[in-house]
User: Fold these one by one.
Assistant:
Number 1:
Amino acid sequence: MKNTLKAGLPQVNLELSEEILNKLVAFGQAVVKQNEVMNLTAITEDAAVARLHLLDSLTVLTAADLKGKTLIDVGCGAGFPGVPLAIACPDCRVTLLDSLGKRMKWLEEILPQLGVKAECVTARAEEAVADRRERYDFATSRAVARLNILLELTAPYVKVGGAVLAMKGAAAKEELAECGNAIKKLGLKLEEVKEYPIDGTSHAVIVLRKVSPTPKQYPRRYAKIKACPL
């Protein structure tokens, strides 16, 4: 896992210390071990975990400077990308948000053991925003929903001047093309799409700057968002 991670870092223009690499690998191994008793990931082979979970998560670091900032990972699942970001940038105050209590309980237990600081919140994204609206410099998310749905769940958390950092695969530009209306209504502006080749396919971080407050009616209830995306 460590060798694969080391080999992949130059492809995404990153350098990390041995201490951080060891901590990333320790988390990757913890996910694989816990996956034996809990459904965390379909990816369990060491090299694949290094490329498709750890390295993929770290691409966010090349799209934004997280030092001294606050970031919320919406729908964090097993902790990607939020935990690798908290490990690689300990100066960033990371909040992990997911509605599945078992996963969050495990993260609350394992992260202190690994020496990783992150706030763990068990709640639905459209509900937790009630007391966290526009509190964060960045919101990120990976493999949660199509972009036109995802933006309504993430944009309300971001303060004006901050950004949504949406992680997407090969369909990034196709999903972005659906989002003109959502971007405008939610107070966002497309800044850039950073693409990375990982494991033979294109991965992207879509950077959407928050230029005005998100109207209070967003996010709507999830069933409404899904049935009628902006």
Note: Residues 18-34 form the longest helix (17 residues).
Number 2:
Amino acid sequence: MTMKALINFFKRETVFCVSLLLAVISAFFVLPDAAYLTYPDYRTLALLFCLMIIVAGFQALGLFSILGESLLKKAGSLRKLSFVLVFLCFFSSMVITNDVSLITFVPFTILVFRMIGREERILKLVVMETIAANLGSMATPIGNPQNLYLYSVSGIGIGEFALAVLPYTGIAFLLLAGVLLAERDEPLGKQILALGAGAEQRRMFPALLPFLVLLGLCLLVVLHVLPYLPVLICTAVVILAVNRRLFRSVDYFLLLTFLCFFVFIGNMKRIPQISTLLTSAVAGRELLAGILTSQVISNVPAAILLAGFTDRFTVLLTAVNLGGLGTLIASLASLISFKFFAKEFPRQKGAFLKIFTIWNVVFLVILTAAALVLS
């Protein structure tokens, strides 16, 4: 690879490169041995792979675009249109993850608002969609990678999980609704009515069925009803039979990032001085530690890192989900929105970062205050 290609790769996969470097450095202090095989949480890796490829199947069939178009037909005003788009991100992220929700609906939003000639509304709306996807995804164990990992390794029940996240999901819903209600309302023209394709929905169901069955099996693994290995094999076989090109849609660098962090954290726990130091630094401070760490390395690595040094998983779950607010890198899903917006409106990058940061800090301060009271 040329130097330019290496630099571009580092920019594109920064978190993976950092995690790989940490894993390699830690291996000099704890030489590789058989114990390395015990580091990874194979269940989380298998579930993450299955969910990514299933959601890629939904995307390939155009399910989310058709859903969005169907809902948009009912929007008769700018305010209703904004509500539909923001809460599509909020609720869809609970099942298809925050990343996929933004990949699907941010370009869709830009297209729709250009169609109706209201481009000035796009910036703030994309920021609200990003916040909605990050906060909506915290409501379920499969909504984002940090939830999937912490729910898998912690052994907490679904009731404990709900208590850790649903109060903040509810507050987030009210905050988002309040922001959207404060927007000036205007009636829409006829352009929206051109969207939609009912016949496509009817033809889609047979092709959708295998993916729905696989999603159901994955949910049973999440709930500890089924073992992960048979479901992983079943998913791979079905995808090979239905659409093998979907294997290219999996974010393998995300899986490798998890693997590298498992190695790094496993090695740190085997160095007594460091393990003791990190445990004492995190203990009793999980909420602030999770939020602050997420601002620097993003919330997925923060969850993996801090989970190795605390047993207060419900507090950590709250922390890393709220920690997705704040800086642009606090949740890597936010970078998806920024890239889409910057591509279409390159002269408004600075404006986007300003508005994004202001609103994220507002939401973060309110939700952190609520967490300090509730915990």
Note: The CA atoms of residues 161 and 314 lie 7 Å apart.
